[in-house]
Amino acid sequence: MNRYERSQETSEERSDIRTDSEPVTRRLPNFPDAEELYWSAKQLDEESIGPSPYELAIWSKLDEQTFSDFVQDIPTVQDTTFVPEFTPKQLKNEYEWEKMDADYISDYHIFGESVEISKLYVTELDVYIDREHLVMYVRVVTAT
Question: pLDDT (tens digit, 9 = 90+) per residue, 14-49?
Fold first, then answer.
């Protein structure tokens, strides 16, 4: 779980949901091509010195082949307590989330070599998937 307070919101309650992919792929170069992409960013600590940390929450609906290729061989564990920060109205559903292994994500650079949890820029990276709905939810906390 992250160290910042979160609450679940629906897309009807948020005005900052975006669908353009460039800001996502700029930070996560190997992010898979999505059939649907919804994301939101928010600043977490306005009083910090230096770059302010912010959270990027990404919903991605993938086609079957892309999803299969992406999750292949990545260890996951079922997470029945996970609740995404927001859910786009287009993707409202009952999900059975599996969390990807954080060490695997970091060690194998699944989103690109520039994405490393140990570096200054990305301080937290969580990836959840739902195999039935071919959906991925990614939460990134970064300082840039």
Answer: 568 999 999 888 878 788 999 999 999 888 876 767
Amino acid code (one letter) for 142: T
Range 111-119 contact pairs with CB under 8 angstroms and sequence separation of 24 or more: 111/28, 111/29, 111/30, 111/31, 112/28, 112/29, 112/30, 112/31, 113/29, 114/29, 115/27, 115/28, 115/29
Q: What's the start-to-end Cα distance of the chain, in Å?
A: 21
- d(Cα 131, Cα 71) in Å, to the nearest integer? 9
Higher pLDDT, 122 or 103: 103
Contact between 111 and 30 under an 8 Å Cβ cutoff? The reply is: yes
